Amino acid sequence: MSKKLYIKTWGCQMNVYDSQKMADVLAPLGYAPVDAPEGADLMILNTCHIREKATEKVFSDLGRLRDHKEAKAEQGEKALIAVAGCVAQAEGPVILQRAKYVDMVFGPQTYHRLPEMILSANGGERVVNTDFPVESKFDNLPASTTQGPSAMLSVQEGCDKFCTFCVVPYTRGAEYSRPVQQILDEAKKSVEQGAKEVMLLGQNVNAFHGEGEGGSWDLARLIDALAQINGLARIRYMTSHPSDMNDALIDAHGSIAKLMPFLHLPVQSGSDRILDLMNRKHTAAQYIDIIARVKKQRPDIALSSDFIVGFPGETDEDHAATVEMVKQIGFASCYSFKYSPRPGTPGAVMGGIVPEAVKDTRLHELQAILFAQQSEFNQRSVGKMMQVLFDRKGDKDGQLLGKSPWNQSVYVTAPERLYGEMVDVTIEKAFQNGMAGTIATTETTTKTPSQKKEAA
User: Fold this and answer.
1) How far apart are the first and last CA of the chain?
2) Which of 78, 98, 129 represents a domain boundary (last residue)?
3) Is residue 113 part of a domain?
4) What is the pairing mode between strands 127-129 and 104-106?
5) Which sign, positive or negative, has the C-alpha torsion 97, 102, 103, 105?
6) Residue 393 belongs to what domain range?
7) How would you list the strands of the sheet with 197-201, edge to edge?
């Protein structure tokens, strides 16, 4: 009889990947994923410290999971509750102290040890595992059985940049790149299981320096090798750091047809003074130059970024510089947040705190521009035909969702048999966060410059 596994995943795609891998690790033990915590034998809260007031939200979510654990106990059955991810890594002992009903707390580098942790927890031990093991977790993970048409593939973890607002170096550890052959093997396995697209993941994915044939490979060389895999049609990567956008990677956007025309490159601020306080290691001018060089290689590229509003010491002039940068570049999508301090980071003890009301005003102004740019980018697609990979089922009957080459969400009424397929779609409507279309009746598609060159 299988056991029910419920995982609630917070935050980034790396966490989604980690949750999938946890399910893979637990499958041989008889755990089968479920969509709700009712009746679950193991409930895992996979956390992200990027969220504002992350610790408080942990205990809010845990309170709801406790109710299900107690209901299970009333039936004479045992359920385990675990907290995983970056909040667990940073505040594991605090979680166990405040929530006596939590059985396991473990960081993002240790989930390959889940079987032994569960054995200890079932024996009555409260488990804390927030080590940074000598062995790589990737060397101890089973092949994935949970991937779909668009597969996530972690190639790099950790960060050596130490931005003053960020906890990642403390929760994920130093930068680590997986061996090239290990990545290629996992990508081929995903394609065999039906994936047509891979998303290469890393905290600083373009800092990749994995060992391969002839020595260390950079991300551009890895992407080129992945592009040779038969059946793999699309390659994406995120999240990147401007300091690691080397010439080879920029050139790859124009020369590798399978590399999709989308780049998520966080800048955080348009002010050099704030970028320095953030320890970002790049200037606004350097960022703008990188974008110009990428656009030269791929004129139709969709750009995405991250912005933090109200960092300590930010003035009206600093904010105006960010607004001006956004207007100058033009983005297809962005993430923007009010600054909130993360315990243990240098930013948390900086002076010059910006009042919340000022943060609110600045964020509203910035988002109004970003949302308008996003809507305009999508509106330019209306009337065009483009290839969409259907990788999700919609909320409505007969609806499929997919991604355009430019990473836009596309909603289509289509038969379920097209799930997992790449289909020509005519875009009929556009919204801020997506588009709607119909299955095209012609072979004509909107192709990127590189795709046109390859077809010729």
Assistant:
1) 56
2) 129
3) yes
4) parallel
5) negative
6) 385-455
7) 150-154, 197-201, 234-238
DSSP class of residue 112?
A: G
Instruction: Write phi, then psi, for 253 (nearest 5 degrees).
Output: -65, -20
Only one residue has tokens 């992350």, namely 54
Residue given tokens 């409930």 in the structure block: 43
Domain holding 118: CATH number?
3.40.50.12160
Number of domains in the chain: 2
CATH code where residue 406 lies: 2.40.50.140
Strand extents, DSSP E, 35-171 = 42-47, 80-84, 104-106, 127-129, 150-154, 156-157
In this prediction the pTM is 0.82
Q: Is 106 among the domain residues? A: yes
Q: Which of 185, 168, 183 is nearest to 218 (CA)?
A: 183
Whether a cis peptide bond, with omega within 30° of 0, leads into 239 is yes
- Scanning 257-354, the segments in alpha helix (DSSP H) are 272-277, 284-297, 316-329
Q: Nearest Cα to 237, choosing from 357, 151, 306, 363?
A: 151
User: Does residue 15 fall inside a structural domain?
Assistant: yes
Inter-residue contact 263 to 293 (CB < 8 Å): no
Lowest mean pLDDT among 52-56, 57-61, 194-198: 52-56
Q: What is the pLDDT of residue 237?
A: 98
pLDDT of 444 reads: 39
pLDDT at 455 over 60: no
Distances (CA, A) of 75 to 67, 80, 239: 13, 14, 45
Residue 402 belongs to some domain of the structure: yes
DSSP β-bridge partners for residue 153: 200
Could you read off the pLDDT of 240-287 as tens digits, one per residue?
999 999 999 999 999 999 999 999 999 999 999 999 999 999 999 999
Domain final residue, candidates 129, 144, 166: 129
